[in-house]
Design brief:
The chain is mainly alpha-helical. It contains seven helices and no strands. Helix 3 packs across helix 7. The longest helix has 25 residues.
């Protein structure tokens, strides 16, 4: 891929991301929300986390956030789940996590982690959709 093509794709992607923000609006698109739930289910299952709750999620950021926080909280008492494994599966690095926790030190760590999960899963879905459209 030439330098010009790369720069064009980078610019186009930036414009595309700006058009689909804020998150609440992204989740109101049926196709995007279905893809979000599908990706979230995949990531949870790969990490041995229960994913049954995902199929009934409404397209509402606050409710999604609450449900993920609940699952993360339940996982703290289970021996067969590990939040770091989940974050690795979703592609959230330890450095990103530490930075985000530091920036939001006034919030419960599970609330911060749930926010990161939603944003990263949605980002993965939007990136896939963008590159599928630009092919």
């Amino acid at each position: 891929m030439g330098s010009d093509t790369f720069e064009w794709k980078k610019s186009a992607f930036k414009i595309y991301m700006e058009e689909v923000i804020p998150i609440e609006n992204q989740l109101s698109s049926r196709d995007l929300f279905d893809a979000f739930k599908s990706q979230l289910t995949k990531d949870f299952e790969q990490s041995n986390f229960p994913s049954d709750f995902i199929k009934d999620l409404p397209a509402d950021y606050t409710r999604i956030h609450e449900k993920i926080v609940d699952e993360l909280h339940r996982s703290e008492t289970r021996a067969d789940t590990n939040v770091m494994t989940l974050l690795y599966s979703i592609d959230i690095s330890e450095a990103q996590l530490k930075k985000y926790l530091r920036e939001h030190a006034d919030k419960n760590h599970l609330v911060v982690i749930a926010d990161l999960i939603i944003k990263r899963v949605l980002q993965k879905v939007v990136i896939k959709k963008f590159y599928k459209q630009s092919e």
